[in-house]
Amino acid sequence: MKNETHHNRFKLFLASLAFVLIIMLAIFIGATIIRNNQTSKVPKVIGVDVSAYQGTINWETIENQGIYFAYIKATEGNDYKDSEFDNNWNNINSTTLLKGAYLFYDFGKDGNSMADFFIKTVPVEARTLPPAIDVELTGEATTKLPNKDSVLKNVNKIIKKFKDTYHQNPLIYTNIKTYDTYFKGSHLDNVDFWICDISNDNPEIDIKDWKFWQFSWRGMLNGIDSDQKFIDLDVYNGNLKDFYNEYDSNAISRLFK
Questions:
Q1: Rg of the chain over CA atoms, in angstroms?
Q2: Structural domain boundaries of the chain?
Q3: Picking from 22-31, 75-84, 108-117, which range would have the lowest pLDDT averaged per residue?
């Protein structure tokens, strides 16, 4: 009777172990399928956008995780310079990553003064991505919407100065709500969009030719020395050859023989 009891307990143990292993295998397979499906929806030219929130960044480590470009916060409004801009702008040069800088738009400031401060901060260099203007409704602007015509007029001031200085058509970074409020159907001469749309498989805007898409706010990469463990992830709308052909033609002959 005692031996039979031990035998039954052993069979129960084996059955329980088999059940746990089956559950673990199912979870692993399910996670793999989900991860592969998510990856299949995102092209391969992945980049990041950063600010002082990420602290000191080891750009070599970032590059080695399949990252091809980075947008770096430079200024906010007409008087705030990101405390890590100089470090990021210079230290990234030890990698092959393409870099660009962005201005965080202040709805209460004049476009010319914001552009001038950015231009004073961000040097004109070869092999850089177009300057970007981060226009998004935050804080008081979400409850008391600034006038559309005045916003577009102000943004156009920045666009003109950026074109004249950097000889590139700038990007406008924005989210879906801000895009629908200010930019949908509006005419901005030769300006591409960098759209933030976290909730969808593809950006849901009325133009198909978006240039970059911020698809995650919660990327996790090694190489960030900060209490802020997350990093924004972005993707270029095209393949790697398209990317280099557009922004670094010298890389074409080096990488695509």
A1: 24
A2: 1-40, 44-255
A3: 22-31
Q: What pLDDT is attached to residue 112?
A: 98
Burial (CB < 10 A; 0-12, 13-18, 19+), residue 94, is exposed
CA 230 vs. chain centroid, Å, equals: 12
Q: What is the pTM of this model?
A: 0.80
CATH number of 44-255: 3.20.20.80
Task: Report the distance separating Cα 83 and Cα 70, nearest Å.
Answer: 17
Q: Is a pLDDT exceeding 60 seen at residue 91?
A: yes
- pLDDT of 162 reads 97
3-state class percentages of the chain: helix first, strand second, coil last, to nearest 5: 45, 20, 35
DSSP for 42-90 reads S-S-EEEEE-GGG-EE-HHHHHTTTEEEEEEEEEETTTEE-TTHHHHHH
